[in-house]
């Protein structure tokens, strides 16, 4: 039977922070989306949208595809590694595009598919060595290791959690310090399936307020939406994800925050509004258009002054004069 959801009580104050990743992967996802919208075959369009998800999964790995295969093979066996990476491999995403180009498709539709094919190929050329999420983690993990308060990092699956731990808890100074923090529970790496239990344990402890940050690595909108309804969360929730998800969070949470049943000080709507505002700020920061610089040499009708004179001729003549030579061969006096 369908039951009425329990009323949401007041929630703890939480600061939201977002780090969006973009680059060739975002371009490839946009190209796949354009090809799907312009396809005359609904089945093919659905296939392309599914492969957009595969590309997102590949880009969300905490290391490059080659390293992921080697690390998982060593830790869990070759068959497990192959099964996990199958939907994240370039072959699974590129194959339907290549088959379409070998078929009878023509005109603008073919051009869109060709553009998507080239964009996906370019994206996977970078993903083999490193992923956008992996690049962020390479900067984030050492920073977290140096913090004086405990942290939780959450990943989409147990395999991704294992990859992060294997990659960063290495023999380096930072890696050894991370291993000590992990062993004594000062830093917690968890999969999304483990998160609720981890948070319940912390919330019931006397030192729950010492946990200052919860970092969500490549979450889905569904489990982020579930998480934010918890009455207690650490002081800061930091979301590292694809740019397109940041945009969806900004729009979705903004709409939900205004619902009269959850609005008001200390209510869920206030937390949702904080997440929406933070996501909107990150979206705007990442939406700055590129600047085309014109680097062609130009001639000038008049030669520039070779001496830039900053000396006051009416000043004291006894003062020391300094000459600074510039790379342009001009001199500041």
Shape designation: globular
Q: DSSP helix count? A: 13
Rg, Å, rounded: 26 Å
- Strand order within the widest sheet? 1-5-4-2-3
Q: Whole-Å distance between the termini? A: 86 Å
How many strands, which pairing sense, and closed or not: the largest β-sheet?
5 strands, parallel
Question: Can you give the helix content as a percent range?
Answer: 40-55%
Strand content: 5-15%
User: Which secondary-structure class do the elements indicate?
Assistant: alpha/beta
Number of DSSP E strands: 8
Order of helices and strands: EHHHHHHHEHHEHEHEHHEEE
The overall average pLDDT, rounded, is 85
Q: Are there runs of 5+ residues with pLDDT below 50, and where?
A: 289-295, 297-303
Short description:
With 333 residues, this protein is α/β, with parallel strands linked by helices. It has helices spanning 24-37, 42-59, 65-76, 78-85, 90-101, 107-127, 132-145, 158-168, 173-183, 192-203, 221-227, 243-257, 268-286, and strands at residues 15-21, 151-155, 187-191, 213-217, 236-242, 307-308, 324-325, 331-332. The protein is built from 13 helices and 8 strands.
């Amino acid at each position: 039977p369908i039951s009425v959801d329990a009323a949401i009580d007041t929630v703890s104050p939480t600061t939201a922070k977002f780090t969006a990743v973009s680059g060739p992967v975002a371009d490839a996802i946009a190209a796949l989306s354009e090809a799907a919208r312009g396809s005359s075959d609904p089945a093919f369009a659905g296939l392309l949208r599914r492969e957009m998800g595969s590309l997102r999964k590949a880009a969300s790995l905490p290391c490059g595809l080659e390293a992921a295969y080697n690390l998982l093979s060593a830790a869990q066996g070759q068959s497990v590694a192959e099964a996990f990476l199958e939907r994240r491999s370039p072959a699974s995403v590129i194959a339907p595009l290549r088959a379409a180009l070998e078929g009878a498709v023509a005109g603008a539709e073919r051009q869109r598919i060709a553009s998507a094919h080239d964009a996906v190929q370019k994206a996977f050329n970078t993903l083999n060595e490193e992923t956008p999420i992996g690049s962020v983690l390479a900067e984030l993990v050492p920073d977290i290791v140096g913090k004086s308060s405990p942290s939780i990092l959450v990943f989409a699956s147990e395999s991704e959690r294992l990859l992060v731990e294997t990659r960063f808890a290495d023999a380096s100074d930072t890696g050894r310090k991370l291993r000590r923090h992990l062993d004594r529970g000062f830093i917690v790496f968890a999969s999304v399936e483990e998160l609720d239990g981890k948070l319940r344990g912390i919330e019931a402890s006397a030192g729950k307020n010492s946990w200052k940050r919860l970092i969500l690595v490549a979450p889905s909108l569904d489990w982020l939406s579930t998480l934010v309804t918890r009455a207690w969360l650490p002081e800061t929730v930091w979301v590292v994800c694809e740019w397109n998800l940041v945009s969806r969070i900004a729009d979705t949470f903004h709409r939900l925050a205004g619902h009269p049943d959850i609005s008001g000080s200390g209510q869920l709507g206030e937390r949702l509004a904080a997440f929406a505002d933070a996501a909107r700020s990150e979206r705007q920061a990442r939406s700055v258009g590129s600047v085309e610089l014109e680097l062609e040499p130009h001639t000038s009708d008049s030669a520039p002054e070779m001496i830039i004179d900053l000396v006051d001729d009416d000043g004291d003549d006894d003062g020391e004069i300094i000459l600074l030579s510039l790379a342009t061969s001009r001199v500041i006096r």
